[in-house]
Design a protein that fits this description.
- The complex is a heterodimer of chains A (801) and B (64).
- With 801 residues, chain A is an alpha+beta fold.
- Helices cover 49% and strands 19% of the residues of chain A.
- With 64 residues, chain B is mainly alpha-helical.
- Chain B is built from three helices and no strands.
- Chain B is elongated and about 60 Å long.
- Classes of the chains: A alpha+beta (801), B mainly alpha (64).
- Chains A and B meet through α5, α7 and α8 of A and α1, α2 and α3 of B.
Chain lengths: 801, 64
C-alpha cells in the first residue's frame, strides 16, 4: 500500500538506499531518513497530533538523534543560579520564561508545539508567536521542571533556547504598542472628522444653519485635539529635535503643516470666522503614522536577528579546578579560568587553547563550511563549536568583550543608523520648507499692504495648499508598499535606501560559496584507485567514519546503510582516521596522511575537497571528491537578471577551475577567482569608477567589507550574522529567484515614486500661484491637499498587489 | 435636524468605546502576532472527535 518514497516524510531529505526507518502516519507507511526523524515522528503520532502532517506547508527540520548526554545537560537549566538570568517567578511556584524556538517553519509547527507542551501537567501557559518564533512559557515548578518541558520540545523535533527577554524584546513591544495606539487614535479620529467634514462641505454648497455649522466645528475640534496632541506628538518632538540641531528635516514641514492648520482651525472655530481644516489634519496624521508603523515592523524584524545570537553561546561550562571538573553557569566564569570543552559543545568565551588538538566549526561566524584545525596556542572564539576531540582553554575575554558581542553591537548600530540617501532627502525637504516659508512671507507682506483684512486667510491657504503632504508621502508610501510586498516574499529590506539603489543596479556581483551554491558539501565523485570497486570503497569509508563529527566524515558515513563495524580507531585531528574493518587495516583522510610511508602521491584535484582511502601501507584505494552543489533555482534567476539588463559577475575566493565550472553552468561569462576580500573590494571600486552601480550578493563574514563597499548589498538568509548586519537587504527565503523579483519590484517602486513626485510638484506649482493670488478659498485648499495625498497613497498601493 | 445634537454626541460616545476597546486589545497582546492567528484558525483541534475522522476508523478506510 505504500509506495517507496525517495524523500524522508518528516524532513524531506533523500532516504539512503535500503533504509529501514518506517512509521505509519495518517494510515500509510512512511519512510524516514534517520532514527532521529523517526523518533520525532513517533512522539508526534503517540501524542495524537498526527494532524500536524496534514496541515504543515513546509518540511520539518531534520531531527538530530537525541544524545542522552544532551538531555542530561538540559537538567542544568533547573539550577536556580542559571535560571536567575532568564526566569521570572510570579508567586511561590509559578515561573515564567521566554524561549527562542528553533525549527519553526510553518504555522502547523506552532500548533504542534502549543498542543503538545500545553497538554503537559503543570504547564500553565505556552504561547508561540509565529512572526518572531518566540514562545512564552508559564509553569508550576512544583509539578514540572523546566528541563522536562525542554525535553518534551526536543522530543517533537524542535530546540528551545531560554533567553533573557529583558534587553530588546520589551523595548520593541513597548514601541509597537505605542505606535499602534497612536495609529488607532488618529484613524478613528480621521474617520469621524471626515464624516463631519462631508456635512460641512455639503452645507457650504446647499446652505446650513449657522448654529449647526458651529456645532459641527466644535465637535470636529474636540475629536482633533487628541489626534494632534497624542498621535502627532512624534512629529512635533522630531521637528523640535531637528531644530535644536539647526537643520530642517522632513518632520519640520510635517509638524508645521499640522500645527499651523490646527492652530488656524482652532482660531476659526473660536472666532466664528474663516475655515476649518480638521479633516486634513487628522487624515494626514493617520497616513504618515501608518507608513511609519509598517517601516518600524520591518526594522524590528531585522533587529530580532541580533537577539538570535544568544543561542550560539552555551549556558553552562565545565571549569577545571584543582579538585577536578565542575559545571558552572557561563555567567559565573572569570578571566583566567580554565575550561574543558567536549566535542560537540559550544565554546562559551574567547580564549586560548592550553591543551588538546581538535578542529573547530566556525561556520556561524565565517560561513566556512569546513571546521578549522586548532592546537595549543591558537585562539578560539565564543559561539564556535568544538568538533573532534576535547580541548582545554583559558578564558581571555568574556561576555560583552567577546567577538560575538561586538558583532551584536555592530548589528544593533547598523540597524539604528540612518542611511545616507535618507539624509539627502531630508536636506532637500529642508530647502523646500525654507523656500516655502519665504514665499509665504512674501505673500503675507504683499497682502498686508494691499488688503490687510484678507492677509491672514490668504497666507493660511498658501501654507495649507502647499503643505508638503503629497511630497512627503510620495517616497515613503511607495517604499512602504514595496517593502511590504518584498517582506512577504522573504526579502527583508533593512536600510531605507536599498530599494532605490537596487532599481539602478547595472552590475550584480556574486560570491560563489553559499550564494550561488548551497554552501553544503555533497559527494560528487568516487574514483576507485585500487582493486576495490566503488561500492566496496564506500562501505569501508562509511565504517571508518561512523564515529567522526567532521562534516566530510558525516557525509561519507551517511552513504551506506548499516556499514560493517570498525575497530581500533585512531583519529589524528585535522588529518584523518585509521582503523580495522573486517580484519584489514585502513586509513582515510587527507592525501598526505592516508598515503604516508608509500611512494604514492595524488595530483591535487582541482579545488575540490577530497578524502583518500588507503591501506595501512599507504596504497591508495579510492579518492572521494566533494563539492558544493549549485542552488537549483540559480540558473533561472541568473537568466531573469540578465534579461533585466544587469551584468553578472562572480567574485570568488575559490580556485579557478571550480569557479569556471560554476560560471559555465550558470551562463555567466565574467568571473574572477582566488580573490581575497581586499581584491574583491578593489574589483568593486574599479567597476564603480566606470560609472557602474554595483550590487553585491554574499554570505560570509569575509564578505562583510565587500558588502559594505557596494552601492547595495544583499546577504543570504543562511549566511552569517555579520554579513547580514552589513547588508542592505537579506534574502531570508534563501531563494535566488526572489532576488530577480526584488529588482523588478524596486524598479516599479522607482517608477511610482517618480510619478508621485511629478504629481506632487505639479500640484504645488499650479496651486501655489492661485493661492497666493487669493483665488483659492481655504476649503478648496483643504480638499486639494487631501486628494493630492490620497492619489499618492493609492498610486503607491498598486505596488503591494 | 435638531436630532443631530443628540446623535453626534452619541456617536462620540461610541467612538470613545471603540478607541477604548482597541487600547484594551493592544494591551492584552492581540496585535503581537499578526500572522499566526490567520493560520491557527485552519487547524482543527476537534478533528479526532468528528466520527469519520476517528483514528481507528481511518485505518479501516485506508488512505484517501
Amino acid at each position: 500500500m505504500s509506495k517507496p518514497q525517495d524523500s524522508c516524510y518528516h524532513c524531506g531529505l533523500p532516504v539512503p538506499e535500503g533504509s529501514h526507518y518506517q512509521l505509519e502516519i495518517l494510515g500509510q507507511k512512511r519512510n524516514m531518513c534517520c532514527p532521529g526523524c523517526k523518533a520525532v515522528a513517533q512522539a508526534i503520532v503517540d501524542g495524537g497530533l498526527s494532524d500536524f502532517y496534514k496541515h504543515r506547508t513546509e518540511n520539518s527540520a531534520t531531527a538530530k538523534t537525541t544524545v542522552p548526554e544532551l538531555l542530561d545537560e538540559l537538567a542544568l537549566y533547573d539550577r536556580p543560579e542559571l535560571q536567575r538570568s532568564f526566569v521570572i517567578s510570579d508567586e511561590a511556584n509559578i515561573k515564567q520564561a521566554a524561549l527562542i524556538l528553533e525549527g519553526i517553519v510553518c504555522a502547523a509547527c506552532v500548533w504542534l508545539n502549543e498542543r503538545h507542551v500545553g497538554s503537559l501537567p503543570g504547564v500553565l501557559e505556552f504561547s508561540v508567536n509565529y512572526a518572531t518564533h518566540r514562545a512564552l512559557l508559564r509553569w508550576d515548578d512544583s509539578q514540572i521542571h523546566l528541563s522536562d518541558i525542554l525535553r518534551e520540545i526536543a522530543a517533537i523535533g524542535y530546540i528551545a533556547h531560554p533567553f533573557d527577554s529583558g534587553r530588546q524584546e520589551q523595548l520593541y513591544k513597548k514601541e509597537r504598542a505605542m505606535a499602534l495606539r497612536r495609529l488607532a487614535v488618529a484613524g478613528f479620529g480621521a474617520m469621524q472628522v471626515m464624516m463631519l467634514a462631508v456635512g460641512l462641505y455639503a452645507g457650504e454648497h446647499y446652505g446650513m444653519a449657522e448654529n449647526m455649522k458651529q456645532f459641527f466645528r466644535w465637535v470636529s475640534l474636540f475629536i482633533a485635539i487628541p489626534v494632534v496632541l497624542y498621535s502627532a506628538r512624534t512629529f512635533f518632538s522630531g521637528a523640535w529635535g531637528d531644530l535644536k540641531r539647526r537643520r530642517l528635516g522632513m518632520d519640520v514641514p510635517v509638524a508645521l503643516a499640522i500645527g499651523s492648520a490646527f492652530a488656524a482651525s482652532l482660531y476659526a472655530t473660536v472666532s466664528h470666522s474663516g475655515e476649518v481644516y480638521f479633516d486634513s489634519v487628522t487624515m494626514f496624521t493617520f497616513f504618515l503614522l501608518a507608513g511609519r508603523f509598517l517601516e518600524m515592523g520591518a526594522r524590528q524584524r531585522a533587529g530580532q536577528a541580533a537577539e538570535e545570537l544568544v543561542k550560539l553561546l552555551p549556558a553552562m561550562a565545565t571549569r577545571l579546578t584543582n579538585s577536578g571538573e565542575e559545571v558552572v553557569p557561563v555567567g559565573e566564569l572569570a578571566h583566567g579560568d580554565q575550561l574543558r570543552i567536549k566535542p560537540g559543545d559550544g565554546i562559551p568565551a574567547d580564549g586560548r587553547i592550553i591543551a588538546g588538538q581538535s578542529s573547530v566549526d566556525e561556520s556561524l561566524l565565517t560561513g566556512e563550511s569546513l571546521p578549522i584545525a586548532k592546537s595549543v596556542g591558537d585562539t578560539v572564539t565564543a559561539g564556535t563549536v568544538n568538533v573532534e576531540s576535547p580541548l582545554d582553554i583559558e578564558v581571555e575575554k568574556l561576555g560583552e568583550e567577546t567577538v560575538l558581542a561586538s558583532i551584536r553591537r555592530l548589528l544593533d548600530r547598523a540597524l539604528s543608523e540612518k542611511p545616507a540617501i535618507a539624509l539627502v532627502a531630508d536636506r532637500v525637504a529642508g530647502w523646500f520648507v525654507g523656500g516655502l516659508l519665504l514665499v509665504a512671507m512674501l505673500v503675507a507682506a504683499y497682502w498686508y499692504f494691499h488688503a490687510p483684512a484678507q492677509a491672514f486667510w490668504i497666507v493660511l491657504s498658501v501654507l495649507v495648499v502647499t503643505c508638503p503632504c503629497a511630497l512627503s508621502l510620495a517616497t515613503p508610501a511607495a517604499m512602504t508598499a514595496a517593502t511590504g510586498s518584498l517582506t512577504r516574499l522573504g526579502v527583508l529590506t533593512t536600510r531605507g535606501h536599498a530599494l532605490e539603489t537596487l532599481a539602478q543596479v547595472s552590475h550584480m556581483l556574486f560570491d560563489k560559496t553559499g550564494t550561488l551554491t548551497s554552501g553544503r558539501l555533497s559527494l560528487t565523485e568516487v574514483r576507485p584507485l585500487g582493486e576495490l570497486d566503488r561500492k566496496g570503497c564506500l562501505r569501508i569509508a562509511a565504517a571508518l567514519e561512523q564515529a567522526s563529527e567532521h562534516p566530510v566524515a558525516r557525509l561519507l558515513a551517511q552513504q551506506v546503510v548499516a556499514p560493517p563495524r570498525a575497530s581500533e580507531l585512531v583519529a589524528t585531528p585535522g588529518q584523518g582516521i585509521e582503523g580495522t574493518v573486517e580484519g584489514l587495516r585502513y586509513r582515510i583522510g587527507r592525501s598526505g596522511y592516508a598515503l604516508t610511508g608509500s611512494g604514492y602521491a595524488l595530483e591535487a584535484s582541482s579545488g575540490f575537497s577530497h578524502a583518500v582511502l588507503a591501506t595501512s601501507e599507504g596504497r591508495p584505494l579510492a579518492e572521494f571528491l566533494f563539492s558544493d552543489v549549485i542552488r537549483p533555482e540559480a540558473k533561472a534567476s541568473m537568466q531573469q537578471l540578465q534579461q533585466a539588463g544587469i551584468e553578472l559577475q562572480i567574485l570568488s575566493g575559490d580556485q579557478p577551475q571550480v569557479v569556471a565550472q560554476v560560471a559555465r553552468e550558470l551562463g555567466i561569462t565574467a568571473w574572477q577567482a582566488g580573490l581575497s576580500p581586499a581584491d574583491k573590494l578593489a574589483a568593486i571600486k574599479q567597476l564603480q569608477q566606470g560609472q557602474a552601480v554595483v550590487g553585491m550578493v554574499g554570505d560570509g563574514v569575509n564578505d562583510a567589507p565587500v558588502l559594505a563597499g557596494a552601492e547595495v548589498s544583499v546577504a543570504m538568509g543562511s549566511g552569517t550574522q555579520l554579513a547580514q548586519a552589513s547588508a542592505d537587504m537579506v534574502l531570508l527565503s534563501g531563494q535566488l529567484t526572489h532576488l530577480a523579483k526584488a529588482v523588478m519590484v524596486a524598479r516599479k517602486a522607482r517608477a511610482i515614486v517618480r510619478q508621485n513626485l511629478a504629481w506632487a510638484i505639479l500640484y504645488n506649482l499650479v496651486a501655489l500661484p492661485l493661492a497666493a493670488a487669493g483665488f483659492i478659498a481655504p476649503w478648496m485648499a483643504a480638499i486639494g491637499m487631501s486628494t493630492s495625498s490620497l492619489i499618492v497613497v493609492v498610486n503607491a498601493l498598486r505596488l503591494s498587489r | 435636524m435638531d436630532i443631530l445634537y443628540l446623535l453626534i454626541p452619541l456617536g462620540l460616545v461610541l467612538l470613545g468605546i471603540a478607541v477604548w476597546a482597541f487600547m484594551w486589545a493592544v494591551k492584552s497582546g492581540q496585535f503581537d502576532d499578526l500572522e499566526g492567528p490567520a493560520h491557527r484558525i485552519l487547524m482543527d483541534d476537534d478533528d479526532p472527535k468528528i466520527p469519520q475522522n476517528k483514528p481507528d476508523e481511518r485505518l479501516k478506510d485506508g488512505p484517501r
